Every structure is written in C-alpha cells, then in structure tokens.
C-alpha cells in the first residue's frame, strides 16, 4: 500500500521548483519593461546598457533583438543589423520577440531610413 505522503511530497517539490523558476522570468520581464520606458524617454544609451546586461545573462533572442533596436535608435546601424539577423536566426526568436517586425526594421535601415 502506498503512503499518501509520497504524492504530497512530489506536489510540494514541483510547486517549489516552478515558483523558483518563475522568479527570474518576472525579473526579466521587469527589466524589459524598464528598458521600454527608457526607450520611450529617448534614453536609448541607458536602455542599450540594460538590454546588453539582460542578453549577457539570459542569452535570449528577445534581449538581443532589443539590443539591436536600441542600437538602431542611436545610429549604430551595422551593429543593429547584425544583432537583428542573429536574433532572427534563432528558432525561438520569431515566437518570442516578433522578429518579423525586427526584419522590417533591418530593411528600413538598409534603405537609409527611407520607407
């Protein structure tokens, strides 16, 4: 006969593990939001530094795409395009960072800012 303690212990272990992994995600989401606020305030250099730190820590294509968009905002077109291409190359980038928009931004940059 099974002890009812085994399923309860498993449930507690799974709950603790999922809440521990959810915390960094919430922290990352807060950093993305902070970067968006900085970008909206035209503080693109500060946003770039924040997104670079986020990308170094997470290696997420979403963070790299944000690095690229901030680079584009301050006129670093070559770096911006390189980072957009790299973010778009990731299989998960299309789902997580909307890289179809990033690709169109890259084409916009190649045309010298003309639509």
Which helices and strands occur, and which strands form pairs?
Layout (H helix, E strand, L loop, with lengths): L4 H36 L3 H15 L2 H13 L3 H13 L3 H5 L1 H12 L5
Helix pairs in contact: 1-2, 2-3, 3-4, 3-6, 4-6
Main sheet makeup: none
CATH domain class = Mainly Alpha
Number of domains: 1
Q: Oligomer, anyone? A: single chain
Structural class call reads: mainly alpha
What form results from the Cα inertia axes? flat
**Beta-strand residue fraction:** under 5%
Q: Secondary-structure element order, as H and E?
A: HHHHHH
> Helix content range of the residues, please?
over 70%
Q: What is the CA–CA distance across the termini?
A: 72 Å
CATH topology: Serine Threonine Protein Phosphatase 5, Tetratricopeptide repeat
Provide a count of the helices.
6
Uncertain spans, ≥5 residues at pLDDT below 50? 5-21
Mean pLDDT: 76
Radius of gyration: 19 Å
* Strand segment count: 0
CATH architecture: Alpha Horseshoe
Summarize the structure.
The protein is mainly α. Helix content is about 80%, strand content about 0%.
Structure overview:
The protein is mostly helical. It has a single domain (5-110), classed as Serine Threonine Protein Phosphatase 5, Tetratricopeptide repeat (Alpha Horseshoe), CATH 1.25.40. It is built from six helices and no strands. The longest helix is centred in the first third of the chain and has 36 residues, at 5-40.
